[in-house]
Amino acid sequence: MKKVIVIGASGKIGQAALSGLGHHDIVTASGSGKGADYQVDIGSEESIRELFKQVGSFDAVVNTVGVCEYADFSDMTEQQWMTTVLSKMMGQINLVRIGQEYVNDGGSFSLITGILSSKPIPMAIADATTSGAIDTFVKCVAYELPRGIRVNSINPTVIEEAWDVYGEMMSGFQPVPGSLVGKAFARSVDGFITGEVITVDA
Ligand SMILES: NC(=O)c1ccc[n+]([C@@H]2O[C@H](COP(=O)([O-])OP(=O)(O)OC[C@H]3O[C@@H](n4cnc5c(N)ncnc54)[C@H](OP(=O)(O)O)[C@@H]3O)[C@@H](O)[C@H]2O)c1
């Protein structure tokens, strides 16, 4: 059993991740902190550091948060780009950058990306771009992490539990059960793989 911090546990992908991690000692965190053990803002270095300090000893961080703005490229403002970059890209990079100081030897980080980086759709350029950046980040930073620390990203298609939110913009996509995303997070946390993008597609 490992001590695993699940960030964004109240969300759709957070719930999916939890479905695969039931055999672990889970600590939850989310933006509002409602119904979670801790409140954290992944857009703030101070907040991330405070979370890791408060939890103390832990073996894995599972992040399922990445706030994205959706608009056509020609309409998207710099502020919309920066919202997405500071959350889905820098937020996740900071979890690893700061978390490597606190995670136990042989620990792991599992990040969230998404299928739109390889199967583009209208309105999703910022999500696609930052997902691609994080997939590249995990492949490359895996060589630099100390003390046997591992890092992977989970790159899922839309899950059935979120089809009511994303279905209209994802015509032609086949949703998968969230439990498959849970198993992908479990492979990342429980296995020995590192620097991998774990794709979950139909
Ligand atoms: N849903 C899908 O089918 C799917 C598929 C592939 C990829 N993804 C990606 O997965 C990520 C999450 O999607 P989702 O559908 O699970 O979203 P969601 O249901 O809206 O959940 C978002 C979660 O993020 C937390 N959160 C929001 N802002 C935060 C912050 N600044 N710091 C910490 N936590 C914060 C929320 O906590 P509070 O509610 O407490 O604020 C909530 O737990 C997105 O990047 C999305 O692109 C989703």
Short description:
The protein is built from six helices and seven strands. The chain is α/β, with parallel strands linked by helices.
How does this structure look, described?
The chain is α/β, with parallel strands linked by helices. The protein has a single domain (3-200), classed as Rossmann fold (3-Layer(aba) Sandwich). Helix content is 37%, strand content 17%. It contains 6 helices and 7 strands; from the N terminus they run βαββαβαβαβααβ. It has helices spanning 12-19, 45-55, 78-99, 125-141, 163-166, 178-190, and strands at residues 3-7, 25-30, 38-39, 60-63, 108-112, 150-156, 196-200. The protein has a 7-stranded parallel sheet with strand order 3-2-1-4-5-6-7, sandwiched between helices. β5 (108-112), α4 (125-141) and β6 form a beta-alpha-beta unit. α1 packs across α6, α2 (45-55) runs parallel beside α3 and α3 runs parallel beside α4 (125-141). The site of NADP nicotinamide-adenine-dinucleotide phosphate has 29 residues, from α1.
Any idea what the CATH architecture is? 3-Layer(aba) Sandwich
Low-confidence segments? none
User: Which strand order does the major sheet show?
Assistant: 3-2-1-4-5-6-7
Q: Please give the largest β-sheet.
A: 7 strands, parallel
**Secondary-structure class:** alpha/beta
When the domains are counted, the total is 1
CATH superfamily: NAD(P)-binding Rossmann-like Domain
The hetero compounds bound to this protein are: NADP nicotinamide-adenine-dinucleotide phosphate
CATH fold assignment: Rossmann fold
Query: What is the helix tally?
Result: 6
Cα end-to-end separation: 30 Å
What would the average pLDDT be, to the nearest integer? 98
Which of globular, elongated, flat, extended, rod-shaped describes the shape?
A: globular
Helix content: 25-40%
How big is the Rg? 16 Å
Please give the number of β-strands.
Answer: 7
CATH class: Alpha Beta
Beta percentage is 15-25%
- Secondary-structure element order, N to C: EHEEHEHEHEHHE
Family: Belongs to the short-chain dehydrogenases/reductases (SDR) family.
Pfam family, one: adh_short_C2
Keywords: Oxidoreductase
Protein name: Short-chain dehydrogenase/reductase SDR
